[in-house]
Amino acid sequence: MARTAGARGIGAARQGSGVAPDTSLTREQRLQLYYFMRLTRSLEERLVNLYRQTKVVGGLFRSLGQEADAVGSAYALRQEDVLSPLIRNLGSMLVKGATPLEILKQYMAKGDSPTRGRELNIHFGDVGAPGVTRGFVGQISPLGDMVPVMAGVTLTFRMRGERRVGLVYVGDGATSTGAFHEGINFAAVQRCPLVVVIENNGYAYSTPTVKQSLVRQFADKAIGYGIPGETADGNDVIATYEATRRAVDRARRGEGASIVELMTFRRKGHAEHDNQSYVPAGELERWAAENDPIDRYVARLRGEGVRDAELSAIDARILAEIDAATDEAELSGIPEPLGALKGIYADPPAERPLWFREGKGAVVEQSERPSSWGTFDAPARGAD
Ligand SMILES: Cc1ncc(C[n+]2csc(CCOP(=O)(O)OP(=O)(O)O)c2C)c(N)n1
Ligand SMILES: [Mg+2]
Question: Does the structural domain 27-331 have CATH classification 2.60.40.1220?
Fold first, then answer.
């Protein structure tokens, strides 16, 4: 990725002994991949603590076991590229510049969170001019619908002659929607610089992948759209990065859309409330013991000469960062009720908008509502 370590505090790169890295990533960048995976996991663990204290508003979605797929794929993008994440792409958003403080405030629906308490979990975006914004689109819940949206976003890149790329994530379940098909077909035909990452994590809620599709691999669907498709090990952060990078480079060269399928496993339920009773016995334990993306990457880094002390220092820095962000987020206030009207009406409003119907519920209005309650506190038309 074009981004270099720095703002996030990974120490200056130092050359270690041991096996030479087998990709073009520098040592500093390889440590940064570790940093983002560990940050994702630790931040989600903190969110679980807060959830159990009832401080999280709404559901909590984990990406346990999928950190390599989220981080490695997003790392293949440049700052000016645009990413469309899903609920299991906290790691991708962190790579693109989302901060733990924003995430914590957003999950706790604080008044100064990115959506001011009006949306939940990681449903927020930051898009606009390249270089000014971080380039992640606010996600919507209907599965697959971000594919046509990102086909449109990347069509504008092509039409303006901008060498920017878009990346949209879909789960195995989302591939069964009409929106996925329409969006990817449009992107293919229009040669949009779009990378469609299919996160094949074994389940769509309680539906196993074998009941989702008869294709052997989701990357095989690419043939039907006339675009390249590749399957990679989604629990190997380097393999994920390299496969996505190939698709990103192709798109940037003007060669159009492609599919990257990342093989991974959802080790938690759909959300925290889901006890995964439908998962065969032993499957979760097997993935945790044999195919944890962070454990695998740590083993690899050690083989390349990274010392445990370096990794522990990164872990300690992450913990301090999350502790500070949690303290700050907890101190933030809840949203003001009338703040719900901000951004809904023209600013300044042309009329005093009411959020209840005048003349209804008269008893409540007389006895309980303070004066001006129910109206946005704005001058009436012509007041100036
Ligand atoms: C069109 C549509 N149908 C159903 C849902 C309800 N729903 C939300 S997430 C989900 C499962 C998604 O599975 P997958 O696409 O594999 O993503 P994963 O959760 O595994 O990351 C379902 C059925 C929805 N949001 N949109
Ligand atoms: Mg899935």
Answer: no
Residue 238: Cβ-neighbour burial (10 angstroms; 0-12, 13-18, 19+): buried
pLDDT one-digit tens code per residue, 45-79: 999 999 999 999 999 999 999 999 999 999 999 99
Can you give the residue ranges of every domain in the chain? 27-331, 342-384
| Nearest Cα residue to 87 out of 55, 54, 53, 47 | 47
Q: Which atom of ligand 1 is nearest to the CA of 205?
A: 11
The Cα 48–Cα 291 span in angstroms is 22
**CB neighbours (10 Å) of residue 191?**
16
Pocket of ligand 1 (CB under 6 A): 88, 141-143, 171-174, 177, 199, 201, 203-205, 266, 270
At 216-245, the pLDDT tens digits run: 999 999 999 999 999 999 999 999 999 999
Residue 241 CA to residue 17 CA, distance in Å, equals 23
Q: Are 203 and 266 in contact (CB under 8 A)?
A: yes
Of 62, 64, 143, the residue with max ligand 1 atoms within 8 A of its CB, to mutate for a pocket test, comes to 143
C-alpha span between 65 and 9 (Å, rounded): 24
Q: How far is the CA of 88 from the centre of ligand 2 (A)?
A: 10
CB 115 within 8 A of CB 106: yes
Nearest-angstrom CA–CA distance, 45 and 318: 12
- pTM score, whole prediction: 0.87
Q: Look at ligand 1, atom 25, and give the residue with the nearest C-alpha.
A: 142
Q: What is the pLDDT of residues 87-106, one digit of tens each?
A: 999 999 999 999 999 999 99
HSE-up of residue 303 (Cα within 13 Å, Cβ side): 9
- Structure confidence by residue, pLDDT tens digits, 148-197: 999 999 999 999 999 999 999 999 999 999 999 999 999 999 999 999 99
Closest to 93 measured CA to CA, from 50, 143, 142, 135: 135
Partners of 208 in the β-ladder = 203
Nearest ligand to the C-alpha atom of residue 205 = 1
Q: Give CA angle at 165 (259, 106), nearest 5°.
A: 95
Q: Give the C-alpha distances (Å, rounded to integers) separating 201 from 65, 170, 171, 226, 270.
A: 9, 11, 7, 25, 11
